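Technical note accompanying the year-one report. For the benefit of new consortium partners, we illustrate the data format agreed upon in the data management plan: each record pairs a sequence with a structure-token string. No post-processing was applied to the example shown here.
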Amino acid sequence: MKFIHTADIHLDSPLSGLATYQNIPVDLLRTATRDAFTNLVDEAIAEAVDFLIIAGDLYDGTWKDYNTGFYFSREMGRLNKAGIPVYLLLGNHDAESEMTRRLLLPLNVHQFDSRKPTTYRLEKCHVALHGRSFKHAATMENLVTTYPEPIPGWINIGVLHTALEGSSAHANYAPCSLAELSAKGYNYWALGHVHEYATLQQDPCWVVFPGNLQGRHIREPGAKGAVLVTADETGILSVERLLVDVLRWHRIDVDVCDATDLEDVIRLTGQKFEQLIAEDQDGKPMTVRVTLSGKTAAHGDLFGLESHLRAEILAQAAAIGSDKLWVEKVHVETQPMMEPIEIKARADAIADLQDLLEEAPFDLALLKDLEKELQLLVGKAPYELTEAVPAFTEIRNGELAQLVKTVSPGLIAYLAQSEQD
């Protein structure tokens, strides 16, 4: 007996962080969650699974229009023709009270009740599915305590949308513990809500988060998909990942300690891109967040060049990635080679400037004058430049003290490097 366990599909939820990218295919951004789900349905049919479990958050909220429902009905129709039933549980995003639009689904789709736990019995393979949907998005009660006892001699599967014992990245809905799940005596817990894949336990029962089907932003990096579970009358035999995503998000850290100038930084970034592509086995499009780090002689060269630096790194991605590699953001977290104490020892104009900048965050009159001047500059800047320079946001918010602290080391390094040149 085989089944697929999936969750957190968030149909028609858009990918974010790439909207201003000129060369990325628009269709890829718009249809990524659908394409991943279609891939999953293809896998279910190819594997001839006995059933499919969706453990919450099929939708990202109520539909903007009926097209989302039309699409899902079509995919369920494909499974219906293949004789594959679907067991659907509602989570916090698609809770019963959240969905204002609905369509009658094909007869192979069975939805867990939200008022009390529902048990579906599959007589053919002696499997019992126990689950309870969310009535409201903010469901804070422990639902596990309401689930029924296992059916003796059958494979018992609990379907639950939960934060389990809490996750810093996910709201603490339907909290429960691993001990409580184990105590139920089920063979497998098909969980949803946490977007990272995790097999939390195999004995005395399997407890699995399949993760979401498609990463939608940089906080959902890496390969995404569902799990294929194989079982027999003795219990669960194996749990394998099914990777069905169509685009992957990555973070890469580029150590630029050995860089002496901007050109070296760009070259090192290009080498990281080449390494990322070489390690990729699936050939899927990728989008990356680049972080430049390390104590480097190039720190001064990077000062104030955010827009140009991003353009150079985008060019590297275009040259190396063959239209399958895009850059989401570039973060500069480098440090100057010279420590502040070394600058002070110089006893020159640059050392005097450093002393002035160290006091500046606490000089309210200076900050007020600086804010007035910079607000005028930001007001005249084109929108594209505003997006490319993160400091503009701090200026708009009046966060000048922090801005001065942030840019001072780069300015000093730039001036010190210029003096040497």
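Partners are asked to follow this layout when depositing records. Residues 2-243 form a domain with the Purple Acid Phosphatase; chain A, domain 2 fold (CATH 3.60.21.10).
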